[in-house]
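Ticket #4471: structure output looks truncated?

Reporter: J.K.
Steps to reproduce: submitted the chain below (343 residues) through the standard prediction queue, then opened the result file.
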Amino acid sequence: MKQFVLIALFNFVLFVECKNVPIVINTWNFSSATAKAWEVIQISERTAIDAVVEGCAVCERERCDGTVGYGGSPDEKADVALDALLIDGKTMSIGAVGSMRNIKNAIGVARRVLENTQHTLLVGEGATDFAIMMGFKNESLTTEKTQDLWKQWKSNRCQPNFWTNVEPDPTRFCGPYEPTEANSVYSSLYSNEFNSKNHDTIGMIAIDSNGDIAAGTSTNGARYKIPGRVGDSPIPGSGAYAENGIGAAAATGDGDVMMRFLPSFVAVEGLRHGYSPKKAAQSAFQRIQKFHPKFFGGIIVVNQEGEYAAACNGMESFPFSIGTKDGGVRIESVPCLSPTSNI
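Returned output as attached by the reporter:
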């Protein structure tokens, strides 16, 4: 089915074909996830929701970059916990899970939250219990790699970590910690050195042949995070956002900083006000850069017509994977000199 946009002009109605729809786009060079989502949405002509769920699930199984799915980033207790989000732009229904343990298919559980509850976000042990009730298998998320990473971290005096204004000195010693006077507030904000090798998220956007939009995320979060930490990925408007007739965005990077600015929501609001995807992506990140010029992150933005762009900060370039009718599945990238220099 071809996608058309209805345009009213001087009492005449025109139907303009959207050449870039259907479309699938996701953060990073996770092309196998893109290929699966593209197969779902183009070949099988199924929904955008189906494409996002099945595409993200590929990364969960393949453990993309070791930062999505099981067996990846351990927390301070050597455990692995997953975050995921799913947004239906047609109904504005949202399902998400945060800090969920012992369930591998986080994006699948997010779908069950969306479709089988009136809630938006389930976290921790409650999210695990819900998943088991919905038929998901209870199994460990840790692997030998997880244990090796944690042991190396412990032998390196628990460096890097996310503590500040505590004693003993968190830049030199492991915990447990106690609070001390806040004489260096946020001084260690960037000591963890977020980068594409210690914290990625797959953020995926799909527009199907009916013009319906969906977006989703999946991640195992920041490496060596404090247990219980939930990042930006499962937060609506931060990790991803989508609305039919407007467009969608998905972000990745330093979630503890980015979630304070809701970059995906800001980008979609930019589209609503007539911004191009390029301008919408840049404007969302310029807000963050004003306060955190060195933050690490990337964002992809797509409008209703399937036009897309990306912006990034804190790395040399930001790759993303895309599937379209005219070019198939491919990897593109943008340079990250500054938000205003991106394509």
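Triage note (M.O.): checked the attachment and the full token line is present. The two ends are 30 Å apart (CA to CA).
Status: closed, working as intended.
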